[in-house]
Structure formats: C-alpha cells, structure tokens
Model the fold of this input.
Amino acid sequence: MEAGDKLREMLVYCGANINEFKDTRFPTIKRFINAARRYSNDEWSGSKISDLPIVCLTRTTYRELVTDRTEIMTAIPALASALWIIFADQIENPFFVDDTRRLGVFSDDLDQAPIWVEKRSNYSYLVLTPKTKNMSMVEVQANGLSLFNATTWFEREHSSSQQMTVTRKQTDPYARKVTSSGTFKSKP
Done:
C-alpha cells in the first residue's frame, strides 16, 4: 500500500469524514492559512468533538512543527482544539524521528501510533507512519487526544459556568461503530 493511501486510511480511523476530506497540499503555511481563512471560525469549531477539524502535517521538520502550529492557531484560533497529526515518513525525512526524540516525549513505539509531546510548547501530536499497522490503536489514540485538546481549549476559552458535551462517533470502513463521550465543565 502506498504511503498516501495508508495515510488516508488512518485518517478515517482518526475520525476524518471521507466525504468532506480535502487532500490539499500547500507549498507554504501562509498559503494554507489563506485558504483556511475562507471558512468562518464557526465552521472550524463544532459543538461536538466529531465536528472538530483534523490537521495533518506531512513532509515537515521538527523546527517547522512548533512555529507552523503556533502560526496557524494564531491566524485561526479555533484550530487550537483540532486533532493535530504528524505523518512521519522515514523515507522522506530520515532525521525526523531522531530530532523529535531529543526534543519531546513519545508515549509508545512509533509503529503503535504514539502521542508525541514537544517539551517547550507542550503541544501534543498523534504520530502516524507508513509502518503503523494497528488501526484500533490509531482510533483510540485519536479519540483520546481529541478529547484532551477539546477539553483544554474549552477550559481556556469559556467561563466556569459553561458546560460542553462532547461525543465522538467514528464509523470505520467496515461499518463497526466506536463511540467515546464525556461532559466537561470548565474549572471554577
């Protein structure tokens, strides 16, 4: 299976709606931001976690990760609640893994769809590779990180009296259904 096909399959397990999937490549982050600004903040942020966007970074270096994410979230604040994914292809960037190991912490082995936390910014990313095989783990990690990001964003953006209910429904290509849900109140 080609790396691009593998990535699309994994993105479905992460909750991407294949009918609304935009496989668009931008040569620069500024071009991505300009294209993304066509959508309103309401279109980027959903009332349910299943409505939240997924940002997948490919062909990136460590130095670009934090600055690109900061630049994107500054321009489009609603993307702070997105599921951020790094697709790390060792063939395209053989130094990526070594760089990220030095500058952050992985929750598991690379082929197990780990979460990577960058030490300085504390940004979390789901890391996928062409060697990732366990789609159940991809789904579990994506659900967990999505819930974490949505909760963190909600607590930062809303007053203590507000409440958000998040439900993530994901249907895989074989019509199995996995649901995660929870209710979060911002801290008093």
Observations:
- The chain has six helices and seven strands.
- The mean pLDDT is 74.
- The longest strand covers residues 163-171.
- Helices lie at 3-13, 29-36, 41-44, 62-75, 96-103, 135-157.
